[in-house]
Amino acid sequence: MIIAGTVLSLVLSGTPLAQSTQASGSAQSVSCTDWRNCRQQALEAATRGDYEVFHDLAWRAVQAGPPRDPDLMYQLARAQCLSGRPHDALVMLRRLAELGVVTDASTHDDFRTTRELPGWADVEALIERARSAGGPPPAAPTPTPSPVNAAANESRATPAPGAAGAKSLSPAPAAVSRVKPAQVEETLRFSADRFEPGGFAHDVVSGRFLFGDVRGRKLMVVAEGGSYTVDMVRADSAGFHNVMAIEIDARRGDLWVASAIKDGGAGAVHKLQLLSGRPLKTFAVPTELEPVKLTDLAVNGAGAVFVLESLRGQVLVLRPGGTSLEPFGRIDALGTVSLTAVGDENVIYVAHREGISRIDSRNKVATPLTSRKGIELGRFERLRWHRRTLVGIQSAEDGSRRVVSLELNASGKGVTSATVIDAAVPDTAEATFVALWGDSLSYLTVSNTSRPEFIVRRIPLQ
User: Fold this and answer.
1) Which of 4, 159, 165, 296 has the most CB atoms at less than 10 Å from its CB?
2) Looking at the DSSP assignment, which residues form a beta bridge with residue 298?
3) pLDDT class for 100, splitting at 50, 70, 90?
């Protein structure tokens, strides 16, 4: 079955979601009560040619609706293309084709600009392959997911076994015990030429968002509600290599930056005054530990600074009042990408390809976290600590991403449950960055348009 460009209007649901966003390219605000209402409003916006509102509402419908619903995914692809995001539409159409769903993107005029992209031929071949196999129709709409077993949610979006051309969906990033979508709010959107993100943070006191720029070897600032960047500090004054990660020590008013030669070499940790960006001190990685590839940085409540080095899976620490970086522990696992520190304790958690490991100051031995059956701990791209939980971005084999919260047991050595709080983190070519302050988590994504837009979305944590 081919998904048509127009979808019949649905009866509005009474399920309260009470979510709203500010339309990024429109003066009017958009709001909807549940995913069916979002989809209906999206279609109405498309009819009147208000494509930015169409995009925002279509994205909201995907975020709040049934996981991997082909109708909602196709509508979002249309909205992405019509609102000037043809590459995002290409990614979504590829995902649909890989699920075995046939679309009319090869002929529909709404996808004209997407068909002009270099990667279109590969996607079109996937669509034709699904068509030849007798691709399955889109899954029937289902109610907004409630806190139930994730396996039940997956079954709703999977074609019936034995159907012609039926293909199982890729597994969710985690076989979680529940899906409990939180209200997601877009808080910032801006454009910047030649900007490659190297971490970001939010200074609650000044209301500024801080961004590391890998290529530019600098830090940039965007004010809350702003849409343009201002350079805060550059390599010529701070001595940065490529900026790889940043973190705020709110207790002491310090800003910490990890910089290194991007593909491996020298590295350093820089201490700056948060308010002004004035460089205070640089702590170079000892030469005997080089070459290094610094990928993440965390500060605990006592002021200890931990740095993840991914070439050898090392964790380095700068102790409070210390004068040099020293080894803290080592992870014997592939693909170390992120770490987080626990409160005032010298305990850290490190995310890697196979799962999550814990290191404490007593034995400095990395111990893999245990988990209840059905909870997958691999593929976390970013990880942060929040009130006895670990929360972060987790990816799946099909390229989709989710924000997942992991609840730990009393010892902090095992995961007792996992909850998806945002099931539709937008696609981006690179791993996304997260920042945590108070009871909110924000993540940074990139809209892959001809002039990329950088978008920060905020999620309240329970």
Assistant:
1) 296
2) 306
3) confident
